[in-house]
Amino acid sequence: MKIEYERHRFGKHAEEQTCKYLQKQGLKLIESNYRCNYGEIDLIMQDKDCIVFVEVRARAGQNFLDGLESIDSSKQSKIIKTATYYLQKTKQLNEVFCRFDVVAVKLLDGSLQFHWIQDAFT
Length: 122
What we know:
The protein is 38% helix and 43% strand. By secondary structure, it is α+β, with helices and mostly antiparallel strands. It has one domain: 3-Layer(aba) Sandwich (Trna Endonuclease, Chain: A, domain 1). β1 and β2 form a beta hairpin. The chain is globular and about 45 Å long. The model has no long low-confidence stretch (mean pLDDT 88).
């Protein structure tokens, strides 16, 4: 139980730090941890005229690839359905450009490192 709590806490911290990292890159936060019946999106951000749906994958003591490979076609499909629902609900479906980014976060020597892949899947 304690390990699961620590993992959740680390994941939450990684999402918060990823948001700050992306804001430093010029993106603006719209919403975090958006949930609906289709699934969850970690971060919804705006990059100029584009809505960006961000999936954060945090790993402690592993390489970036492990986090990125965990986003299989099933996970991608859930994210796309959730994003489509969000755009329909906010009446933006045919009004904006959007993309799906992935940020892999790795804990190395006590600090977080970020590997940001823009337009990771369609």
